[in-house]
Design a protein that fits this description.
Distance between the termini: 48 Å
Radius of gyration: 17 Å
Strand order of the largest sheet: 5-4-3-11-6
Structural class: alpha+beta
Strand content: 25-35%
Helix content: 10-25%
Length: 189
């Protein structure tokens, strides 16, 4: 008989929370029609693996909602976008989504050790695949630093609020690390 540990229960609960979040923001607006971005240009949903279009309402094996259309409030010049209200992020080129949207956990005003992720337009300052926080003794895998105060995208919990950074899943953190060079524009709104 397999013994279920506290860690196993926590991981199960985390999985349910992520699936609930994915469902919530996918339901916000699902369509096969592209939505206009801030500049009025239409943005299409991310393509399914292999380049084909996925069936509406289906989720790809990488947990990306391929038929969800997000009203893109992100500047066309930004490479990475974070919608704190929906707790999603995506990568884009010329205003067209190239990866995501994916669930994120930004910092929030609330818990004593959490700081709200700053809103605005920033640029990637530096990257460290194996960073460990100087302020908090925690690993920050695939860290992409973009805002003052050590604010970065990195692998982290999608349930617990961060200390100000934008937490991503392990897969998404790797994709962001690879896709965002120093100098890339990041918009948080």
């Amino acid at each position: 008989m397999t013994r279920v540990t506290k860690r196993d229960r926590l991981l199960w609960c985390a999985g349910i929370a992520v699936l609930t979040a994915l469902t919530a923001w996918t339901v916000v607006r699902v369509s096969t029609e592209p939505a206009p971005n801030a500049s009025g240009a239409a943005i299409a949903p991310a393509a399914a693996p292999g380049g084909g279009a996925a069936a509406p309402g289906r989720v790809s094996p990488s947990q990306e909602p391929v038929s969800a259309v997000v009203l893109n409030k992100c500047p066309v010049s930004a490479t990475a976008c974070v919608d704190e209200g929906l707790r999603i992020s995506w990568l884009q080129k010329d205003g067209k989504i190239t990866y995501g949207p994916v669930p994120v956990m930004p910092g929030t005003d609330g818990p004593d050790d959490s700081v709200a992720t700053p809103k605005g337009v920033f640029h990637v300052a530096w990257k460290d695949a194996h960073h460990v926080s100087n302020e908090f003794p925690e690993a920050m895998p695939n860290a992409v630093f973009f805002a003052p105060g050590g604010i970065a995208f990195h692998e982290g919990s999608l349930i617990a609020a961060s200390h100000g950074c934008v937490h991503l899943s392990p897969e998404a953190a790797g994709r962001y690390f690879d896709a965002l060079p120093v100098g890339a524009e990041v918009a948080v709104f």
